[in-house]
Amino acid sequence: MPLPYAVELGVKGVRRHPRTVLLAVLTLALGLASVMTMLTLLTLLSADPLPGLSQQLHVAWVDSRQAAKNGDDLEPNPLPPSRWKLGDAKAFIAAHPQTAQTALAASYLTVGDEDGKRRQGIYAVMALGPMPTMFGVPLRQGRAWTAQEERAALPVAIIGHRLSLKLFGTEHGVGKQLRLGKHLFRVIGISDDWGPRPAFYSIQSLDTVWSDTAVELFVPVQAALDAGAAPLVEQQCDDGGPGGMRFNEINIAACRWMHLWAQLRTPAQVDAYRAGLFAFASARHAAGIYARPPKATLYTVSAWLDANRVVPDNVRLNFWLTVALLALCVVNVAGLLAARFFKRAGEIGVHRVLGAPRKAILVRCLTEAGLIGLLGGMLALPATLFGLWVVRIQDQSYSALARFQPDLFLPLLLLAVCTGLLVGMIPAWRAVQLQPALQVKSL
After folding, report:
1. Number of H helices and number of E strands within the chain?
2. In the prediction, which pLDDT does 14 show?
3. DSSP assignment of 98-127
4. Which portions of the chain are predicted below pLDDT 70?
5. Could you give the 3-state DSSP secondary structure of residue 204?
6. Where are the domains of the chain?
7. 266: Cβ–Cβ under 8 A, 6 or more apart, which residues?
8. pLDDT value for 343
9. Could you give the CA distance from residue 347 to residue 339 in angstroms, rounded to a whole number?
10. Which of 59, 148, 162, 424 has the fewest CB atoms within 10 Å distance of its CB?
């Protein structure tokens, strides 16, 4: 039997016993769709939030907390410690001028035009150092602030093009003035949309990390504080001060509220920077400024996201549950295919007696199994779209991300065909091992 003829027989075999084929296709489609739904969501949630730059970014921390007191660990913070006081961040950055560093905090601020006639609440980043450059904020026009402007606490700002249009009636607002707190700030740059998801640069809580709101204002931290603005972040304060989330109220000297980021391009730079962190903590502890023993950590972006468990545990759990469901579906489809092949044992025996080699019988069976897998994959596509829609209507902060990626369609079909071939391999091999004489004699 020529192999092309064996393939043709396999194609024709799919048309026989349509109810069995339909059941196998539906079972396989269910398993594939469930896996693809959760795999798509897991892939999107685990994607690089800042491609091309995040590999160089590291978040640093030294333990400047007060000595532990009774009851401190009764309600542990779900997020790892990471915040700095502004004074400590300034001191460490000044001690390592050769490294690009920025200390920042997120906030929600109200800004207006120069006359105060138009006002808008926006998400903002207050930063110490070259934050726009380090984090790749795309500028449509203008520039970022200079080190001299930052040291002089000059009221300058970068705003988003949407905010420029709302306040000034044009997306080209460079040179105009906006009102922030008690001061007027000169617009020196207009940015394109910037809002990495997840918002890894200043994680407040796992409920807000997946916010899809773009940052519309970037401003030097000292100029913002001088204007009376304050960050809206989780504060950790000394001496029993008012910590937690507080709006427009902060004790600059006593509270830790900033994240320190460094741009490190080589392993040698990473090692040197980590050593510098520990040396800084040791010196402060020896001077009696830090009460706790010296401790310092340095995270990559991916390690930082893992430490904060940004990808919800239930998503990972659901993914493995769908893998188990697919395995169960595969076992059931394998049983259906075995029943189909053994039901045609007499026919296979006749072909063997007439000279068909085992290879041709194997090709015939695998062609049938592969086509069933392909049909299951094609049916899995609309089922996957439905599954992603179900995820989107759930009340989760990351639900809006659950959208099918067109570049995953081909892998879905390949997975379906490979699954069909894998499922059909054992039944096909058993069909090949049948003794043709016995099968013909039983006819």
Report:
1. 14, 13
2. 57
3. TSEEEEEEEEEEEEEETTSSSEEEEEEEEE
4. 1-17, 69-78, 206-207, 240-250, 340-364, 424-443
5. coil
6. 3-46+312-441, 54-307
7. none
8. 60
9. 14
10. 148
The answer to whether 260 and 92 are in contact (CB under 8 A) is: yes
Q: The tokens of 229 are what?
A: 């603005």
Q: How far is CA 263 from CA 86, 198, 214, 365, 440, in A?
A: 19, 19, 23, 57, 75
Provide, rounded to the nearest whole percent, the portion of the chain with pLDDT above 90. 44
- Amino acid identity at 13: G
3-state SS, one letter per residue, for 23-83: HHHHHHHHHHHHHHHHHHHHHHHCCCCCCCCHHHEEEEEECCCCCCCCCCCCCCCCCCCCC
C-alpha torsion sign, points 60, 398, 37, 322: positive
- What is the average pLDDT value for the chain, to the nearest integer? 82
Question: What Rg do the C-alpha atoms of the chain give, in angstroms?
Answer: 31
pLDDT of residue 422: 74
What's the CA gap between 389 and 286, in Å, rounded? 57
List CB contacts of 394: < 8 A, sequence separation 6 or more. Answer: none
